[in-house]
């Protein structure tokens, strides 16, 4: 794909291949709000229509079949969002967390890992790995006992309420008790389809990740810290320190998820789940349904303690 902007700042996206002889349009340049192919100078407008073929002359009619495939975009919340489906008269709103809409400052760190996006996302929905993978950071204290999680899921996303404790042999709370404790509280973490995640650290501090698949072997993480520190110098120092901390914590996951098999969790039909995996189960169920991959009944919790159903 090739992304480019017209003079008014509007972003555009097209299939990179020139429909003429297959040159890479990303190697071209922009003239008068037109993307120019580097091979024969064909010019394309923001809709992907070819509007000029130099070899045919200025007065020639350009065949409609010479158009490049283009995509509908929306630029908001510091990202360019691409509509991957068929063209429509009206498009749904961009999926984002309403709590982040106004009043926040944020800083973004970007990393790219050789991992399939499903494994990257499930890692951030996993509430049981903290005392083992992050034992010297966010998992200190040996809190391996997971109460819940209480999970709500719909077509928009997944919301998770969870508390981790040290294991003293205590029983799990029943689902009704978990629901009562979650009532009126902001989720511990949230996920919105197709690929954004939010961790509720406090009322003034949130961690956000946008998971962007590069290909089947690589995912780019846009890791953001949202905060309410508005004094410029203090804000800059705060973002620097917290950004490095978040990158360090995220990097602790790397050695584990890069070696998970199979690499794509959609192929992981032999995985066996526990109660703490409820958010992961919901993610796989929704993903298989949205990708029309057939029956999702195999992705259920097995051998659960009945007190925690």
Write the layout of secondary structure elements.
Elements: E1 2-5, E2 11-14, E3 29-31, E4 34-36, E5 43-44, E6 50-52, E7 70-76, E8 79-83, E9 105-113, H1 117-125, H2 130-133, E10 145-153, E11 157-165, H3 175-182, E12 189-192, E13 196-202, E14 205-215, E15 218-227, H4 232-257, H5 278-290
Antiparallel strand pairs: 1-2, 2-7, 3-4, 4-5, 5-6, 7-8, 9-15, 10-11, 11-12, 12-13, 13-14, 14-15
Keywords: 2Fe-2S, Dioxygenase, Iron, Iron-sulfur, Metal-binding, Oxidoreductase
Domain Rieske: 1-82
Pfam family, one: VanA_C
Brief digest:
The protein has helices at residues 117-125, 130-133, 175-182, 232-257, 278-290, and strands spanning 2-5, 11-14, 29-31, 34-36, 43-44, 50-52, 70-76, 79-83, 105-113, 145-153, 157-165, 189-192, 196-202, 205-215, 218-227. With 309 residues, it is an alpha+beta fold. This is Aromatic ring-hydroxylating dioxygenase subunit alpha.
Fill in the keyword field for this structure.
2 domains, dioxygenase, iron, VanA_C_cat, alpha+beta, seven-stranded antiparallel sheet, disordered C terminus, 2 iron, 2 sulfur cluster binding, Rieske_2Fe-2S_sf, 309 residues, Naphthalene 1,2-dioxygenase Alpha Subunit, Chain A, domain 1, elongated, Rieske Iron-sulfur Protein
Description:
- The protein is an alpha+beta fold and 309 residues long.
- It folds into two domains: 82 residues, Rieske [2Fe-2S] iron-sulphur domain (Rieske Iron-sulfur Protein), CATH 2.102.10.10; 211 residues, Naphthalene 1,2-dioxygenase Alpha Subunit, Chain A, domain 1 (Alpha-Beta Complex).
- It contains five helices and 15 strands.
- The strands form three sheets. The chain has a seven-stranded antiparallel β-sheet, with helices on both faces. Strands 1-2-7-8 form a four-stranded antiparallel β-sheet, with no helix packed on it.
- 23% of the residues are buried.
- The C terminus is likely disordered.
- Keywords: 2Fe-2S, Dioxygenase, Iron, Iron-sulfur, Metal-binding, Oxidoreductase.
């Amino acid at each position: 794909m090739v992304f480019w902007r017209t003079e008014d700042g509007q972003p555009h996206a097209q299939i990179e291949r020139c429909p003429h002889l297959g040159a890479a349009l990303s190697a071209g340049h922009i003239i008068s709000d037109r993307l120019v192919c580097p091979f024969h100078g064909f010019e394309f407008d923001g809709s992907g229509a070819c509007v000029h073929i130099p070899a045919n002359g200025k007065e020639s009619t350009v065949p409609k079949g010479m158009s490049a495939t283009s995509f509908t975009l929306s630029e908001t919340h510091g990202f360019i969002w691409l509509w991957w489906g068929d063209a429509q008269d009206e498009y749904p709103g961009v999926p984002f967390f309403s709590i982040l809409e106004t009043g926040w400052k944020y800083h973004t760190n970007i990393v790219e890992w050789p991992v399939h996006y499903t494994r990257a996302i499930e890692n951030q929905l996993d509430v049981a790995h903290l005392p083992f993978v992050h034992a010297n950071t966010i998992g200190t204290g040996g809190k391996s006992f997971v109460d819940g999680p209480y999970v709500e899921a719909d077509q928009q996303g997944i919301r998770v309420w969870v508390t981790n404790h040290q294991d003293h042999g205590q029983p799990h709370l029943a689902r009704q008790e978990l629901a009562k404790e979650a009532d009126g509280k902001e989720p511990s973490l949230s996920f919105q389809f197709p690929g954004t995640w939010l961790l509720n650290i406090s009322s003034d501090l949130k961690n956000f990740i946008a998971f962007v698949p590069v290909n089947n072997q690589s995912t780019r993480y846009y890791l953001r810290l949202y905060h309410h520190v508005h004094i410029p110098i203090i804000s800059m120092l705060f973002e620097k320190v917290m950004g490095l901390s978040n990158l360090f914590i995220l990097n602790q996951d790397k050695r584990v998820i890069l070696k998970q098999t199979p690499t794509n969790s959609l192929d992981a039909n032999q995985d066996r789940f526990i109660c703490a995996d409820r958010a992961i189960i919901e993610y796989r169920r929704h993903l298989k349904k949205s990708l029309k991959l057939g029956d999702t009944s195999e992705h259920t919790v097995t051998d659960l303690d009945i007190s925690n159903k």
